[in-house]
Amino acid sequence: MQVRGKVMKIDILEFAEGARQARGLAVIIDVFRAFSVECYAYDCGASGVIATGSVENAFELRRRYRNSLLVGERNERRIDGFDLGNSPTEILLGNVAGKTIIHTTTAGTCGLENAVNCDPVITGSLVNASAVARYINQAMPGHVSLVAMGYRANVSADEDILCAEYIRSMLRGEERKLTSEIEELRKGAGKRFFDPANIGFSPPTDFFLCTMTDRFEFVLRAERRHDGNLNIERIEI
Question: For residue 86, is pLDDT > 60?
Fold first, then answer.
């Protein structure tokens, strides 16, 4: 792609290994549900988000940040001792305003931790995909790595690949509507949200909240901290 006289190379990669291979400006993508959750947290008034790769680090951070909430999952379920699961529905129903969100997940935050050769690193999801594309165009990087983290960081996830391809199409100036693809997600990768056995931790509302394409006009940029965790900063676009 040619951007103001500059050629932009765009790669689509997957999983933690893809994050390690990523170069240039990296977009770590987790639609169901990590980076949708972080967007909703900020929209609901959270004062900040800290991403961490381990449960132990999350508990240590809560001891340091008293006005905080532990949010996250392992195997899709809320972690014992955490305040909220990795669910946008729980974010909307929870009292997150003014709180620091300490967030750990199986795939999304793992990808952020492994994107060690990139600058900047931002998150990606369908709910702010257009803002991500605008941010990239404003930054005019020579190399963009779109990293689809997948289901549990080791199985390709249709929703993450779709998000990566959608961002790539916008960077190429192509118009694309996702109505039919999102309907396919509901029948495929997203059908677990409609299984009555999962309603306690993956309710149907999570599917709809995560697929509200381009709902938010901001991006989330990850800044590595001295303690190895990451501050997730909201940037208006």
Answer: yes
CATH number where 201 lies: 3.90.1560.10
Query: In the chain, which ranges are continuous DSSP H helix?
Result: 15-21, 34-43, 55-64, 88-93, 108-114, 129-139, 158-171, 179-187, 204-210
Per the domain annotation, does 237 fall within a domain?
no
Domain count along the chain: 1
Mean pLDDT over 79-85 rounds to 98
- What was the pLDDT predicted at 182? 97
100-104 vs 48-51, strand pairing mode: parallel
Q: Is residue 37 part of a domain?
A: yes
Interatomic CA distance for residues 186 and 79, integer angstroms: 26
Quick one: pLDDT at residue 6?
63
Domain membership of residue 52 as a residue range: 2-223
Residue-wise burial string across 147-162, b where 16 or more C-beta atoms lie within 10 A, e elsewhere: bbbbbebeeebbbbbb
